[in-house]
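hey so i finally got around to running the thing on that chain from the lab meeting. sorry it took forever, my laptop kept dying and i had to restart like 3 times. anyway pasting the input first so we r on the same page abt which one it is
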Amino acid sequence: MTAGADITMVGTIPVPADDPIDAGAVAAWMKDNLPGVDGPVTLSKFKGGQSNPTYRVDAGGKAYVLRRQPFGKLLPSAHAVDREYKLIAGLHPTGFPVPTPYGLCEDPAVIGSMFYLMELVEGRNLWDGSLPDKTPPERTAIYNAMCDTLAQLHNTDHVAAGLGDYGKPGNYFERQVARWTKQYRASETEPMPEVEALIDWLPRTLPTQDRVSVVHGDYRIDNMIFHASEARVIAVLDWELSTLGDPLADFSYFLMNWVTEPEGRSGVMGLAGPETGIPTIEDMVARYCAATGRDGVPQLDWYFSYNLFRLTGIVQGIKKRIVDGTASSAQAAKTAERVGPLAAAAWAFAKRAGA
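ok and heres what got predicted. didnt touch it at all, straight out
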């Protein structure tokens, strides 16, 4: 783990003075809704989780996690913590690694916004995809675990899990391109020629979809918790972008790590191979296809362009919230600086795909 990520993103801080969340209101709700919980609660705020503010809740000798919507004006369909809760509650009984869900409060009057409570899963948070403090065999095992867990998600029967209505089953990329175009327009702060070109090109070149599954939407190393000593994913977190869709969207997003510069986060471009133990992109494709019964994946440049366009829309939303004064993380300003480079990278992959 890099020192930078450890200092800025991992662990908790005291709830900031300008954060109006009320520990007494949380305690009262827990007393009414969670059996055996009665008494004061202590709140602290996780440093990460800039989209939906996330808190550690200590009550009665047990620790929980509270996720809430940001206070203030929100973009349509963003920050839907009720959807996130439904997804966790649907997946948990299937054996897929998610925290135990404890309850959803849809009444914004309780703390000022909708929120839910779930288990605090104790384990390892890994932030740097290069895994600098691991041996080559450990790195291989961790990457294989990430790949296998993603395949497990895509193999899960979402209808049997009660998630048949969690999203529309077809035309996933068409709907996503339209959605992120709309979100980008809603948070646009200045003209960007590469984004305009992508908004024109992506809808005209959509790939065909032949499978439907739950897609996580942001599947990367720092959105999961690993077992304390084993190369095993024990909880996948941050489901706010999840829906039903094309599993290749998730898998290609995971493969983006191999075409992203190593910068102390998930990028491992140039680092794969037997000397490091980080599997190659071809290794990951073969492993995923074997686990999901595919005979291969399509040419990836379109998918990489799409994923970067989507990230551009997400980061532009963070930038807009900075302008409006509602961004909740100290990392937000640094993240917002990535809008231009993301758009440029998305257009570079589009050109490789024939734009």
